[in-house]
Fold:
Amino acid sequence: MKRALLTGVTGQDGSYLAEFLLGKPDYEVHGLVRRSSTLNRQRIDHLSRENPERLHLHYADLADASCLSSLLEEIQPDEVYNLGAQSHVRVSFDQPLYTADVVGLGTLRLLEAVRVLNRRRPVRFYQASSSEMFGSAPAPQGPDTPFHPRSPYAVAKVYAHWQTINYREAYGLYACSGILFNHESPRRGESFVTRKVTLGAARIKEGLQKRLVMGNLEAKRDWGFAGDYVRAMWLMLQQDKPDDYIVATGETYSIHELLEKAFTLVDLDYRDFVDFDERYVRPSEVDVLQGDATKAREVLGWKPEVDFDGLVRMMVEHDLELARREKHARAFPGG
Ligand code: NAP
Ligand code: F7E
Structure:
C-alpha cells in the first residue's frame, strides 16, 4: 500500500483528490483535519463511510509545526499533498497576517517535516500553487511569465512556491509545484464566484432568493473542473523527476459570461436579478487569467475533460437539486 497524506482534505480539492486516490486499490489516505465547533466534513463523509479501512483522519493545523512533524513520523507517508490554505483572495485582505502564516509559513513548516523524514525514507511533495501568483501579468500566462501577485494570498503563495523549489534544489527533495488556474465543482465553497452564481441562479429560479449581490463583473478567469485538476496533481508525483507545471484549460470567460450561461440554463435573464455591492470589490484585482498548460499536456499527458459549458451545467444542475430539496423541506418541515 502507498500512503498519501493530504492537508486540506475537507476542502474542495482535498475531497476530490482523496476520492481519486481511494479509487486506486493500492492507496491508503491520511487527511489532516482542523477541530471545529461545527461540522466541516460534509465533502468527505461519503468517503469515510465507503472506505473505513483506507481513509484515516488526524487532527492538525498548518500553524502547528510540532503536530506536523509528529504526524509525519507516525504516518510515514510516501506522498504529501499540501492543499490546506486560507484560500479566499478577498478574505486575505481582511486577514493578511493569518493568511501569510497558514499559506506561506504553513508550507515551510510542512516542508521542514518532510525534509527530516526524507533523510530516512523517500517522500514526494506536492505544493498547491496558484494562478493568482501571476496577478497583473498579461495573459496568456505560461512557464516564462513573471509573477506579479496582487493580494496577501497571492504573495503568500509565491513565498510557498519558491520555498518548494528551494527544498528541491537544496535538499534534493522530490517536490513539485502545480500552478493551477481556477477550478470549480459542485463542491466549491459557496463564497467563490462560480458557486455563488450557480447557487444564486438555482435559488432565484425556485423562489428561495430574490437578488444576487456581486462585485466586479469585468474580471476574466480560466475555469476548469476540480475533478480533472486533482488528476494532474497525482501525475506530477509519478514522474521520474520532480518539476513544476501549469494546469489550465487555456480558455477565459468574464463573470458576465458566467452569469449569462448559468441564468440561461434556468431560463432567466441575469440582468433582471444582479445588484452591485462595493464590499465584494478587492483593493487590487486580477483582471485576466488564461493559462498555457502545454507542458502538462506534453509531459504528463494531462488534458481537461470538462469544458466551461459542461462545468456550469454540472454546477447549476446540482444546485437546482439542492434548491428543490430546500424548498421541499420548507414546505414540509416535518420531513
Ligand atoms: P478550500 O476548499 O478553501 O479548502 C481549503 C482547505 O484547507 C480546507 O480543508 C481547510 O480546512 C484547510 N485549511 C484552512 N486553514 C488551515 C489550517 N490553518 N491548517 C490546516 N488546514 C487548513 O480550497 P480548495 O479550492 O480545495 O484549494 C486547495 C488548495 O489549492 C489551496 O491551497 C488553494 O489555495 C489552492 N488553489 C486552489 C485553486 C482553486 O481554484 N480551487 C487554484 C489554485 C490553487 P477547513 O475545512 O477546516 O476550513
Ligand atoms: O473570484 C470576481 C472577483 O473568489 C473570481 C481561489 O480558489 O482561484 C480562486 O481565487 C473573480 C474575481 O476566485 C464576486 O473579483 C465578482 O475577479 O471566485 P473568486 P479567485 O479570486 O480567482 C485562485 C486560482 C485561487 O488560488 C484561490 O484560492 O470574481 N467577483 N463578484 C467575485 N468574487 C467573489 N468571490 N464574490 C463575488 O461576489
Summary: Residues 87, 89-90, 130-132, 182, 191-193, 196, 214-216, 219, 221, 255, 280, 282, 285-286 surround F7E (ligand 2) (CB under 6 Å).
